[in-house]
Design brief:
The structure is a single chain. With about 110 residues, the chain is mainly α. It has helices at about 1-30, 35-40, 45-60, 65-75, 80-90, 90-110. Helix 4 (about 65-75) crosses helix 6 (about 90-110) and helix 5 (about 80-90) crosses helix 6. The longest helix is centred in the first third of the chain and has 29 residues, at about 1-30. It is elongated. The relative contact order is 0.09. The mean pLDDT is about 80.
Length: about 110
Amino acid sequence: MEEKHEVYERYKREIYRIGWRVQYKAKKIRNKEDPINDTIPASNNFTKLSDDKIWINQLMESLPQKGKMIIDQIYIQGRTEEEVAHNLQISQQAVNKWKRKMITQLSQIANY
């Protein structure tokens, strides 16, 4: 009976961890903090991927230095706004404002 209880507890902990990971991933997607690398499907078309990387780099170069760092850390490196705020020693609200401003600017440039 003791062994069954241990097995039950082990599986219960593992299910809890899986649920937490799923909720965390959903939160990242909902807050649009999911890294670009996680959402781009693998493709055999090397030229298309290379062209996309060049285009993204050109877009990123058009941003101010601080905005570029924030976008890079959130979307490329997959960090949260809170982590970025801590790294840059600014408030999370400031990171959020910069992020929204840079996304708007990138959207305007990309859609010219």
